[in-house]
Amino acid sequence: MEESKEKNMKARSYQLELVDYVCQRNGIIYLPTGAGKTFVAILALKRLSASLQHTIAEGGKRAIYMCNTVELARQQCVEVRKCTNFKVGLYVGEREVDNWNNTKWSEEIIENQVLVGTAQIFVDIVTQNLIKISDISVVIIDECHHATKNHPMHTFLSLFQYVDQCQLPRVIGLTGVLVKGNKFKSIQKELNNLEATFRGKIVTINSKEEFNNVMLYSTKPQEKLVNYKRQTREPLKIEDDILSIILECKEVIDRYDIGNVPLKLTKGLAKLQEPNKKKYIKNFLDDFLYQMNDLGLYAASLAIMSVIIEFEVKKRQSETTALRNLYRLVITRCENIRHIIVTELKSMVKDGDIYPIQDSICNMSTVIYKYSTPKLRAFLLSLTSMFKGKKANDISCLVFVERRYTAKCVYYVLLNYLKQTPDLKDVIRPQFMVGRQNISYSIESILDSKWNKSAMDQFRNKECNLIVCSNVLEEGIDVQACNYVFVLDELKTFNSYIQTKGRARSKDAYYTIFCENINYEKVVSKIRSYKETHEEIKEFLSERLLECDDPNQQEVDQQFMELIPPFEIESGARLLATSALMLLYRYCQSLPWDSFGCVMPCFGKLPANSNGAVAVSVTLPLQSTIRETITSDYMHSWRGAKISAAFKACVKLYKEGELNNYLLPVSKTECIAKVSEELFKNWKKYNDDVTLRLVGKSHRRLYERECPKELYAALPQVGQISYAYAIQFFTDFDTNPYNAHVVKYLNNTCTYALMLSKKLPLLAEMPLFMSQGKIRVRISNNPIEFILETKQQLNLLENFHTMIFKDLLQLWKDFLVIDRRNLENSYLLVPLNSTQSIDWQLVEDFQRIEPAKSYSITERRRNAYRPEDYLDKVVTKWYTKNDDERYVVVKVRQDLNPLSQFDNNQFQNYMEFYQSRYNINVADNSQFLLEVKALTKQYFGIVKSDSDIRLPNLLDLRLDSTQLRANTSQREVDGFLVNCDKLEQNLAYKFRDRAYLLQAITHPSFPTNRLTGCYQELEFIGDAILDMLVTCYIFERYQSMTPGMMTDMRMALVNNITLGCICVRHRFHLFMLYENSALSEAIRLFADFQETQQQRVTDQVRILMEEYRTIDSDFEDDSDDSSSEDLSFSRDESNAANRVREDMNLRGNFNIASNVDVPKALGDVVEALIAAVYLDSRDLQTTWRVIYGLLENEFIEFSSKLPIDPVRELMENKGADAKFSKPIQDNDVVMIKCEFNCLDKSMEANGFGSNAKQAKKAAAKAALRILSKHAN
C-alpha cells in the first residue's frame, strides 16, 4: 500500500504488543475507554493489508470493520479514512443497502478495500453469497461484547464453521466492557464463551506496570454521588386532576371503536395484543405521566406540548375519520391538561406584580424551581455549584438520562432555566441527542440522525458545551475529552456504569451520579459490585500470558450449536434460522398491495405436546402463491417455534420460485427478465436488454440512427437516369368481410415506388403487422429506369410526395419545411399504374388535397348520385367538424336509403339519425348508403356493419392456468358467502362454481379465506377482458366517432372511477370480504356521496372533485343568480356532502378544486367479477351480456356527451394558454396552480389531491368552469 495518511500519532508500547499479537492470531483487545483500541485496530489493519491491493477476482481480499450501531459505524468509517489511504465504503440501512442488487454490491466490493457497516448487513451479504468468508482478510468487530446468542455479530461468526479453517480471516475484537448486563455470578464462564465465539483469547496489558501506564491515558474521573430527598409532600390537587384526566382518557381509548382491527399475538406469542394505534397513544400518555412524576409540573408543561405536537402529526396522517377523531379527542384532553398546568404555574405571580400575566411568566427561575421535583432541583443546583464562574470553553459536559423524551424535556427545562440565571446564562450552551426509536428507517429516525450529527458537530466545535442524551452516547461514540459527566437516572447495568464513566476522559474530570436518599445504600452497594466485577476481570486477565493457547474446536462448536441447520442452495447462498423471520417479512412486503391491505404473515399457537414442547403455524398473505398453512417443528420455546415456522416457509418460497438465487424476494425486474428470456431471446445478439430500458426524460436511444449511403444525395435529377423500386405487398391472413378491402387494395397491380438517383442493394423482405394480421413488404429487386425530361415533371413529383405526407397521412407539422438540400433520406414516393409506369394523371390530379367543402341543400339536390362514382373512391364526412377524415368506400348499399330502419332502437331511421347527430336534413330520400373504411392510419371504423359478422366470431380466448381453478367443495365456499343470491341477481348471472365468486369479492386484507385467495389474479384477467370487449363494442357501435373520440369513450368507461360507481350502484361493495377499517370508511363515504348523485357517474364523480364558489372574482357580474352551477355538489345538504366540505374547509378569493378518492378496490372487484363470470361460463357472449348490463347507462350517456380528460381539454383550448405549476405538498395533500387566460385577463385556479395527477386534474377542472362561465 502507499504511504499512510494517518495522523501524527506515536504508538505506545502496549499498543504495539497488542498489534503484534492480533497480527498472528485472533484476539479480543480489552482496553479501558480512552486507551486507544481503535488505533490498535487501524495499525493491525495496515499490517494485514497486503491482500487488499487487488480485487477479489485478481486474487485479492477485502477487510470488514463491523460495528453495533449506525452512529458508531459512521464514526469509525471517518477514522479509517483519516488514518489510512484505504478506499473505505460505509454500509448502513440509511443508504438503502437492503435494496441493492448483486451488481451494485459487486461494484462496491470491487471499488472499496475496507467495508465499514453494521453487523446485520455483513451477515446478509455473506449468506446471499455476494462475498465469501474466504474472500475476507480481516474482520474487526467493535464493541464485541455484544457477540452473544441471537446478535448479528454472533451470527456472522457462526458462518465460519462452513469454511475451511485455513481460509478463515483474522478476527480482531475491540471492547472496553467484557460482560453484558449484570452477569456477575458467572463472569469467568461468560468470558470463556466470548473467547470461544471469537476463536481467540482476550488480550490486554501484559503486566501491572504496563496497566498502570495505561491508566495514565484512560479514564479515571473523580466519582461523586449526589443524593436528594424523596418528594414527601402530598400530590397537588391538579396532579390528581391530571391523573384522573389521563385515566379517563385511556378508558375512552379502550372503548373507542377505530374500526375492524383484529387483535394479534405479540412477537413472543404470549398474548393477544390490542391494536398498535391505541397502544401508541396510551404509551405517550404514560410517558407524560412519567415526566410529570419524575421531573415535576414545570417539566410536565413542556412535556405535554411534545405529546400534543406528536398527536397532531399522527392525526393528519390518520387513515380513517374514526382514528382522526380519536386523536382529536386525545389532543383536546392534552390541551386541557396544559391549561390546568399553566394556570397553576401562573398562580405563583402575585396580583399586581405583572399585568396582564403572560405564559412566558411560567419560565421564571422561581417558578421552575418550585414546580420541579427534588431530583431536578438537585441537578440544577449541581450545575450552578460546579459551573458558576467558569468559562464556557472550559466545560465539556454530558448528561445521561434513560428515556428519549426525558432528554428533550430536560434540555428545554435547562434552556429556560439558564435564561433566568445570570450566573449560568453565558456559561452553559446546551443541546440534546437521542437514540433511534426503532430499527426501521422512517422519516423520524432520519431526522433524529441528522439532529444528532448536528449536535455532535456543535459539541466538537465548542458551539455547545453540554449535551443531554439518552444511551446514544453511552457506547463507542467518540466525543472530545469530557470533564463532566452527570448520570441523572438510575444506573441499571454494569455496561452503563463503565460506558458512561468512560466518557469522562479529561484530567481532573468529574463523574456524578444522582439518587434518592432512601436508595443511597442500594446505589452505593451496586457501584461497589460494579467495581469488584471490574477488578475480577482484571485479575482473570492478569493471570494469562499473551502466548496462551486459543480455545479448542470443541469449545468453539459449543457456541454455534444450531437446532435448525442452514438451508444452502446451488448458488452458494445460505438461509440461516436467525434470518428466516426477517426474510419472511421482507418477502411479504414485496407482494402487491394497496393502501388498504396488510401484507404480513400471520402466526398462531398450537397445543403443546406431551413433553411440553410447543409449535406454531404460519399463513402467508393471500397475495402469496403459497396458500396452505405451514407448521413448525416442536420446540422448547415459542420464539424457537416461530423461527422454525418462518424457516420452513422461506424454504418453501424458494422451492416455489418466490425467492431468487440470493435467497431474496424475486423482483419485478427479475420477473421481466425471466419472461424476456423466452420472448426476447434474440435481442441478446444485439447487446440489448429489455429489462434495462430507460424511460421518461432519461430515455436513451439504444441504437445510433444513420442514413444509408444509398439514400444520401439521391434525389432524382432532370436529364439523368432515376430508378423506381416498386413496393410490393403480400397478405398472410385469411380473407373475410372485415379485411377484404385491405386484401383488395394491397394486391392491386397499381402501387407506389421509391424513386431515387442511386441503385439500392438487395433488401430483405420485411414482415409488418396490421390489426387484420401479418403482411409482408418487399422492395422490388428490379428497378424501373426513368429519365425526367423537364423541371416541371420533377416539381410535380415533389409536390405529390409532399401531398402524401402532408395532406393524406397528415404527418406534416406547421413548423416543418421541405428539405431541398438533397442530403439524408433523399428520395421521392411516386405512384405506378398497372403498366408499371409513373401514373402522371394521378400525380397531376393530386398536387394537393383541398379541404372538405360543405354543400347547401340546393347543391345537394342538384347532384346526381351514381354507385360507380363512389365504389373504391375516397370520401369525407363534410358535415362533421372533423372534416379532415378520409374514408375509402368498400361497398355501396343500394338496398338501403335514408328512410331505412336504423340499426338500433335509438333512432327510427337514418334520416332521423343525421338530423339528430349532425343537424342536417337529407336532400334526397332515395339515395344509397355507403360502407367505408378509414383511409389513413388515424381513422378506422365503418358506417354500417355487416349483420352476419358478430363479435364472438372474432375472438377465441383461452385461459387454462391452474391458479384460476377452484379446488374446494361448494359447502366450504358457501360458508363465506352470505346472501350472495342477491349479488348474483344484481350481476344478472348465476354461478355454477361459486368459488370464482368468492375469490372475486375477497380483498387482500381478509386472511380468513384460504380456499381461493384474493381477487388480484381475477382483477388482472377481468381488466383485459373488459378492455377488449368494450373496445370492440365501441368500434362496431359508434362508427361515426374518430379514433380520438373512441379512445376517450373507452377511457371514460373502463377506469377505476366509473367501475367504482358501478360497484356501489349494484351494491357489490356490501358483499366484499375485508378486514380494514380505513377501506370500510372510504367505501362508506363514497357510497354515501353516490347516493347524493342518484348513483350516476356524473361529471363530479368522473373528475372526483369539489369546487367552491369564487368570492369577489374579477368576473363577478351583476346577476343575482344564486344557483349552484359553480359547485360540484348541488345544494343538497346531505351528510356525505357536508363531510367532504368540512374536511376541506377552504375559503377565500381562490378558484379551487379538490379530488375525492374513490377506493380502487371497488373497481378491482368489478373487474374480478367479470373475470369470474368468464371463467365460470367460458363464454364471451355471456360475459358481454353481464358487462353491457352493468355499463348500459354509461354507454348511452357517454355517447351523447363524451367525457374528456380535463387537462387535455384545457390544453387544447389555445386561447387559454394554460400553464401548470410544480406540485406543492403539505403532509398528504398536493396542490397545483393553473394559470390561464380568460377574456384577455390572467386567472388562477388551484387544484388539490392526494397526488400530483389528481391535483392537476382538479386545477384544470376549476379553470374550465371559469372559461365555460365566461365563454359568451
UniProtKB/TrEMBL annotation:
Residues 18-196 form the Helicase ATP-binding domain. Residues 838-944 form the PAZ domain. Its cofactor is Mg(2+). Residues 580-673 form the Dicer dsRNA-binding fold domain. This is ribonuclease III. GO terms for biological process: apoptotic DNA fragmentation; pre-miRNA processing; regulatory ncRNA-mediated post-transcriptional gene silencing; siRNA processing. Its EC number is 3.1.26.3. Residues 1247-1269 form the DRBM domain. Residues 1114-1124 have a biased composition (Acidic residues). Residues 375-564 form the Helicase C-terminal domain. Keywords: ATP-binding, Helicase, Hydrolase, Nuclease, Nucleotide-binding, RNA-binding, RNA-mediated gene silencing. GO terms for cellular component: cytoplasm; nucleus; RISC-loading complex. GO terms for molecular function: ATP binding; deoxyribonuclease I activity; helicase activity; ribonuclease III activity; RNA binding. It is an enzyme of class 3 (hydrolase). Residues 980-1178 form the RNase III domain. Residues 1114-1134 are annotated as: Disordered. InterPro entries: DEAD/DEAH_box_helicase_dom (IPR011545), Dicer_dimer_sf (IPR038248), Dicer_dimerisation (IPR005034), DICER_DSRM (IPR044441), Dicer_PBD (IPR048513), Dicer_platform (IPR048512), dsRBD_dom (IPR014720), Helicase_ATP-bd (IPR014001). Belongs to the helicase family. Dicer subfamily. It catalyses: Endonucleolytic cleavage to 5'-phosphomonoester.
